[in-house]
Specification:
With 413 residues, chain A is an alpha/beta fold. Chain A is built from eight helices and 29 strands. By secondary structure, chain B is of the alpha+beta class. The chains are: A alpha/beta (413), B alpha+beta (476). Bound molecules: flavin-adenine dinucleotide.
């Protein structure tokens, strides 16, 4: 029996472990499938990490190292090269590696920190051939930064999320020509600074409201047909344009990696793809917590670390016998709000609610309602799907309510 | 000098090779691609049809019923997944009911066992996720599913274990004759053989023409599919067909032996035998019609789409004959060719014997091949015993399908050896799960390069110019 097993040794898993340790938990085990700690940050060799957390700009590996160093100094046990295959609702974890074979661990508490994966081409059903040369942006990043191989030289990127933008610059720096970054939506899902630093600075065209409609080439990719899309996001006939290229990178969304959470019977939120959690990041299974990109996809790793600290503290409190839930207030999504984390509140104390909006809007009010009672309202200059919003709720607001609805009031359509 | 050269390493060529490998014969299989099962065999509906579909008295009808009866045994000898899940042809109105009655009678005449017409209540009890507009169905309990490329890899592997040779990247471009034998030429190489079997799929008319037989023509008929995540594999248990009409056989919805959900195919005649592209219209049609049958299919959970080309002959039936001495056609093998393949192999063997090929049984023939998916299905204790001997079985490479490094290395060392990434995929399922190789393809690239003693830049996705990497950028 282990007190606390943490699945995933990326920034979320490491921060959670450190936070739990700080609260006095000693019997901790981190399980990580890769050969080292750090998770996806290891391949993110560009900088821009840590501005909020450390007040300086670090590269991915540097940011990860700040945590790994502490994990090592405290001798928190980790099993690397170890893949978790299954979690039961009794908190029995089945995992495999070369030395131990397939083994089981019973945990008193578990923190899920498995991160997310990229959506593949199949999910888009792009028509055409199936040649070599189509990679998810993260796979290309791994090939270049970790393995030292350039996948191709003439590149089109579909999707302007941060990974797509970063890879446009990375491929360019390695001598490839990036012909275009196409984005289905009329706005980029990436951070404004990445659009400037990764595209504009290199004169890479960003084609908003464009998508790839056909893939050409029998053996290696020979080109793609792109087209403009209308308000319904469907291609507009007659706007097709052929771009010769040998590489197509897809940066079309991230999906929290929750296959093993399902095996434990944890309730998932269909919008985030992550677990439904309370203010402590506890899932529907008592004693199982979730944080980081496996819970919902974050824009900045700094917020992942914050969330993981919260989960680590909560897991420690749970192990130390914290009291049972005091209430159950569900958080609902109102106008323009896609999801909230947490989705439920079980204790009347100040809580920060994170949420994302479905579309770009200027001059809005963030509002909190209980039925038809407006409890809170705050002006905001703009909201965008690419930026996670944080809303601090006081304990008073939680008095006498059973559900709260977060919604956006549009002052100007 | 070979006794028999088989052109084409699809399921038909593969099953013929295995059938002949039981005899004292020198056999070679010539395949133009970098791997086996690259034609229609890799992209089809994977159904072992019961056999009610084909016209009474046709080769298709006869060989389908014979083949489907043999398939369970073939699969078990070759260690290939096979599932007798049953087929349902569903009807929505009176015209459908009449057509189903006809199908039932035809099936009975063809010798299909256990066919039954079901009424709405019984159909929906069996398959609660079908559209509630279904009024009746034809139930074929002998309908089954199999993995066609797994079957072919295993059949060819088994033939090779029994002495057959496989020559890849050998595209037959000319056929000559000398004394008592033929010479088959590719652009770089040649092979001599006393007998030729033409199992070249959609190209079988061109191969026949090289031997002077211009009696038939093959038109490629495109079939497009969308495959869904394993989460959706349980939506139906049986293979669901629509009642065939003047518009065609319609889109089917079926579980696969690996637990995914398969929907398709479209049916469009095309000109170009190399054109395996999917089309926006085709994929839209698949979704629209599949949802008419099973409304709850969640297409957001699609993991890939693909296209296969049917080798549609102009005679309306399989073309299995001998247009000239020592040359056998197994041509125009469109659906139900997979189902019929064990019977086609038997028939080709008989034709060869008629043509004078002597068939003496080998004393050391072994019809068995260990299942490649053995590790996945064995008990925890056995797995751990294997890992202790070879730790590579403890290391997961493909996280979606749970495939280990040990399984991948074993596949690379087993005939017919995979030489490219797609070859690994078809043998182990690594890269075939929901992330489609995003996570494991860089790892597999490395393993493959290591096992084949090639630089990573030379490793391809599926042979030819399908290189994965443009250049190395690290200096070491
Ligand atoms: C869309 C679709 C759905 C189908 N569904 C089913 C089904 O559910 N059930 C069923 O029973 N059947 C089905 N079929 C039919 C079945 O797939 C085929 O009958 C079967 O795969 C044919 O196998 P084959 O070996 O004849 O052809 P192929 O698999 O096409 O093999 C021919 C081989 O010959 C090689 N070749 C060609 N020319 C040369 C040359 N010059 N030199 C060397 N090699 C050459 C090719 O590369 C290829 O590997 C379907 C077919 C399609 C396309």
């Amino acid at each position: 029996m282990t007190d606390l097993v943490i699945i995933g040794g990326g920034p979320a898993g490491m921060s959670a472990a450190l936070a739990a340790y700080e609260q006095g938990i000693r019997d901790i085990l981190i399980l990580e499938r890769d050969s080292s700690l750090g998770g996806i940050l290891q391949q993110c060799i560009h900088n821009g990490f840590g501005l909020h957390k450390f007040g300086e700009e670090l590269t991915g590996p540097e940011y990860a190292w700040r945590y790994e160093e502490k994990v090592r100094a405290l001798n928190i046990p980790c099993k690397l090269n170890t893949m978790v295959l299954d979690i039961s609702d009794q908190k029995v974890i089945t995992a495999t590696n070369r030395e131990d074979g397939i083994f089981q661990i019973r945990a008193r508490a578990i923190i899920l920190a498995m991160g997310c994966r990229e959506r593949p081409r199949g999910a888009l059903n792009i028509a055409g051939a199936r040649p070599a040369g189509i990679f998810s942006a993260g796979t290309a990043q791994k090939l270049i930064n970790m393995e030292g191989y350039l996948p191709g030289k003439e590149v089109v990127i579909l999707g302007s999320g941060d990974i797509g933008l970063i890879m446009a610059r990375r491929m360019t720096l390695e001598g490839a020509k990036v012909h275009a970054v196409c984005e289905l939506m009329p706005y980029s899902g990436g951070l404004a600074r990445n659009i400037q630093q990764c595209l504009h600075d290199f004169e890479i065209p960003l084609k908003l409201s464009h998508t790839v409609v056909e893939i050409h080439g029998r053996e290696r990719l020979e080109g793609v047909t792109i087209a403009k899309v209308g308000g319904d996001r469907r291609p507009i006939p007659g706007t097709e344009e052929h771009i010769p290229c040998d590489t197509l990178l897809l940066s079309v969304g991230l999906i929290p990696e929750n296959e093993i959470s399902k095996s434990a019977g944890i309730d998932l939120d269909p919008i985030t793809g992550g677990a439904v959690v309370d203010q402590d990041r506890q899932t529907s299974c008592q004693g199982i917590f979730a944080c980081g990109n496996v819970l919902h996809v974050h824009d900045l790793v700094d917020y992942v670390s914050d969330e993981a600290e919260l989960a680590g503290k909560s897991a420690a409190a749970y192990l130390q016998g914290a009291s049972a839930p005091a209430c159950s207030i569900s958080l609902k999504t109102g106008n323009l709000v896609r999801y909230t984390v947490p989705q439920v509140i079980t204790e009347k104390k100040p809580v920060t609610v994170y949420f994302r909006v479905a579309d770009v809007r200027r001059k809005v009010q963030v509002q909190v309602w209980s039925k038809d009672r407006l409890l809170y309202s705050k002006k905001k200059a703009s909201v965008a799907p690419g930026e996670m919003e944080a809303l601090a709720l006081s304990a008073e607001i939680l008095d006498d309510v059973t559900a709260l609805t977060i919604s956006i009031k549009e002052e100007q359509a | 000098m070979f006794d028999v050269a088989i052109i084409g390493a699809g399921v038909v060529g593969g099953m013929i090779a295995r059938e002949l490998a039981a005899y004292d014969l020198k056999i070679c299989i010539l395949e133009k691609e970098n791997d086996v099962a690259m034609g229609a065999t890799k992209a089809n509906s994977a159904i072992v049809h019961a056999g009610f579909d084909a016209k009474c008295g046709s080769l298709k009808a006869r060989l389908n019923v014979e083949g489907s009866k043999k398939m369970a045994q073939v699969a078990s000898e070759l260690g290939v997944k096979y599932q007798n899940n049953g087929s349902l042809v569903i009807g929505f109105d009176e015209a459908d009911r009449e057509a189903l009655q006809e199908l039932l009678e035809r099936g009975n005449q063809n010798g299909v066992e256990g066919l039954r017409l079901l009424e709405q209540e019984e159909v929906l009890a069996m398959e609660p996720n079908l559209s509630s507009a279904v009024t009746c169905a034809l139930y074929a309990p002998t309908g089954a599913i199999i993995c066609p490329y797994e079957l072919t890899v295993a059949a060819i592997g088994n033939a090779m274990d029994n002495g057959a040779e496989l020559k890849r990247n050998f595209k037959v471009t000319a056929i000559g004759q000398e004394d008592d034998h033929y010479i088959l030429f590719s652009s770089m190489d040649s092979v001599r053989a006393r007998y030729i079997v033409n199992a070249a799929g959609v190209y079988s008319d061109q191969i026949a023409a090289l031997a002077g037989d211009e009696s038939f023509k093959i038109t490629p008929r495109r079939g497009e599919y969308i495959l869904l995540d394993k989460e959706c594999g349980g939506l139906v248990k049986n293979t669901i067909f629509r009642t065939p009409s003047a518009k065609g056989k319609g889109i089917l919805v079926s579980p696969t032996v690996d637990g995914n959900l398969l929907t398709g195919p479209t049916a469009v005649n095309i000109e170009d035998k190399t054109d395996k592209t999917t089309t926006a219209e085709g994929l839209a049609q698949v979704m629209k019609e599949a949802i008419e049958n099973v409304p709850s299919i969640p297409y957001g959970k699609s993991i890939t789409s693909f296209c296969g080309l049917r080798a549609a002959g102009d005679t309306g039936d399989f073309i299995i004959n001998s247009p000239r001495p020592g040359f056998i056609n197994a041509a125009g093998i469109e659906s139900p060719g997979l189902s019929a393949s064990p019977a086609i192999a038997r028939m080709v063997k008989d034709l060869l014997a008629e043509q004078g090929l002597e068939l003496n049984e080998k004393t050391n023939y072994n019809p068995l091949r260990p299942a490649m998916h053995h590790f996945r299905e064995t008990s925890l204790e056995e797995k751990n015993a294997i890992i202790q001997k070879d730790p590579a079985y403890g290391q997961i490479i493909c996280r979606c399908e749970g495939i280990t490094e040990g399984e991948i290395r074993a596949a690379i060392r087993t005939e017919p050896k995979p030489m490219d990434l797609d070859g690994i995929k078809r043998r182990t399922r690594a890269q075939m799960g929901r992330c489609q190789g995003g996570f494991c393809s860089p790892l597999i690239l490395k393993i493959l390069a290591e096992e084949l003693h090639l630089p990573i830049e030379k490793i391809t996705k599926s042979g030819g110019a399908s290189r994965m990497i443009a250049k190395a950028i690290k200096e070491d």
